Amino acid sequence: MECQDYGLTRNTERDNLNLNPLQRGGMLPQEAKKALLEYADGYSVCDYCAGRLDQIPTPSITGFLEDLAQFINVDEVRTTHGARESKFAVMHALCEPGDTIIVDGNAHYTTHLAAERNGIKMIEVPNNEHPEYAITPESYKETLENAIDNKIDLKLALLTHVDGNYGNLTDAKKIGEIAHKAGIPIILNCAYSMGRLPIDAKELNMDFVVGSGHKSLAASGPIGVLGMKEEYVDTILRHSKRHGVKEVEMLGCTSRGAPIATLMASLPHVKDRVKHWDEEVRKTINFVRQMEEIEGVKQVGKRPKEHDLTRFETPIFDKIAENHTRRGFFLYEELKKRNIVGIKRGQTKWFKCSVYGFSEEQVNYIANSFKEIVDKYME
Amino acid sequence: MECQDYGLTRNTERDNLNLNPLQRGGMLPQEAKKALLEYADGYSVCDYCAGRLDQIPTPSITGFLEDLAQFINVDEVRTTHGARESKFAVMHALCEPGDTIIVDGNAHYTTHLAAERNGIKMIEVPNNEHPEYAITPESYKETLENAIDNKIDLKLALLTHVDGNYGNLTDAKKIGEIAHKAGIPIILNCAYSMGRLPIDAKELNMDFVVGSGHKSLAASGPIGVLGMKEEYVDTILRHSKRHGVKEVEMLGCTSRGAPIATLMASLPHVKDRVKHWDEEVRKTINFVRQMEEIEGVKQVGKRPKEHDLTRFETPIFDKIAENHTRRGFFLYEELKKRNIVGIKRGQTKWFKCSVYGFSEEQVNYIANSFKEIVDKYME
Predict the structure, then answer these.
(1) If you write DSSP's letter for every residue of B185-232 in order, what string do you get?
(2) Given A273, A293, A324, which residue is the final one in a domain?
């Protein structure tokens, strides 16, 4: 029995301007592609392992983790398989089934899944709804205090640094302080921030920060980051009773292969690019300004933008779709003709996109392409 | 602050004959290296995701999982981050903390870690000790029946198909039958077998089979396989209450990136190579015969070999080390001069190795190199 053809090429997404926010921060620089081929084979990083991934000297995973810890200002750091696996590990180590935690109402679905897999209940901090959908420190404080008033023993707090629906940057520093005043350890989910903008876990009053290599650290998936304060190291990284050197929550070792080689190779690039975050934000604000010149197009979420992930309400494209022979697919198809991809096929009422990493010229070209498509159908 | 130099090259292990059993089955064929570069970037396989990794049509993860399920004869299959993560997921779904399971005494440390992370107790089936270290169906049956006699409610059984210390192939079919007669679901850990030799989960009376892409399926790490019978699908792959489409034990999605692309690209190669397993075994038996021509060298574990992973007792190398200026390092260094790597530095009393995938000529060259080294020092 022959294998099917799996269509293992990705030209469309690699060769065109890809606006999918999920794909903008995980693109590999040249040096990471080189590392990927060096470490392509199976257990490639394990040649010189003496029992612990984080202590491998060749390639220097030890040296890398020191640099990474310093980069995000945590006492200890490990790689995991992704931000979700980092969140699961912290919840698993700190909570029992039936416990309750507090999370923001814009949390990623994987936060909910990590809690559900652990049998943990969640109390949610509501956002302030349309059009901002913001999580405010005041609302976080109120929800947290209500829970305490209701004698709920909160074991953990979680805040999404930048959410994946609106690209709202939260005030981690204030919310971290609120959690600490209540004596509750807090995780910051930095899947959309670590590697894009500077993260200083201690400055942000965070006990844990989790990041995503494939989302925002220019690494091949799947790989995540889990940074923590010294006081939690013994709990989160507790050693096996039987295999003393092995860390139980890591199942011994986590990212044993190619993705960690790319994360390592990309760190110098990432350390450099976060210094230019203000330019990325300016580019996004400029993009929003141009997009909003189109009739009825409106950026939702906090204004002005503080992150590249942007959500637009686009009733005009929905209107065009009504009368178009290709219905909702017309937008995807018109964009693709212009070498732009990454807006979901069929979506016209609203969409999320990002111009992270594009040049000013590319940003202008993208905005003009949207305008051109409107002009084509609305004149 | 500059990043350290992580030494991200792997020439030594890529350009020489690598005897490390961990590295033999994870080497990528050309087509997988191509896929690795196509899917190098971050969340590369997620361009056309509608919410579930296993249902992605482009590349056809759906088609791949169908082929994979057929290849190992299971009703349903998922990719995970590795064999250990597959075992953890099954234990997590089927057991509560405090439960007891039965495992073979040659189980990999990750089986112990998966149980420990789940708060599960283990009863262990002893092997028959030196020199075979074999796990027999009789001993499995006896341990299992003793546990039942002692009113221990065994929730799960686990058998290591081929262990990582002696390369002993166990009689999965008989032990599967023993577990089933006792009404206990059983997992077969195929980390060292799936992708090297043919696996037919139903023929082997297994409810679950777990595999390792990086260890034996010619894939970049980390990626694992979790195959299961229909009757366990609803439990192991239960859906989230809040995010109906997402599978809780998978935390939504698992291998979102480059490793799954390599696993997919390698499947035709792997399907073909398992057909030649008998040749690999013959090569190993020939290698053992040549190695045992060296004074005092003795293969331990079951005889004749039924798997490429081979453990030798090598007192002669230990004796040479005693008087050598480089002590135990001499063997590693002498082998490296002959373009052979993969025996741990400093090890001389015994070692594990594998000639999987080498040509007859290479096998002879390797055996002759060991002889040459002995001759150099013992004449």
Answers:
(1) -EEEE-TTTBTTB---TTTTT-SEEEEEHHHHSS-PSS-EEEEE-HHH
(2) A273
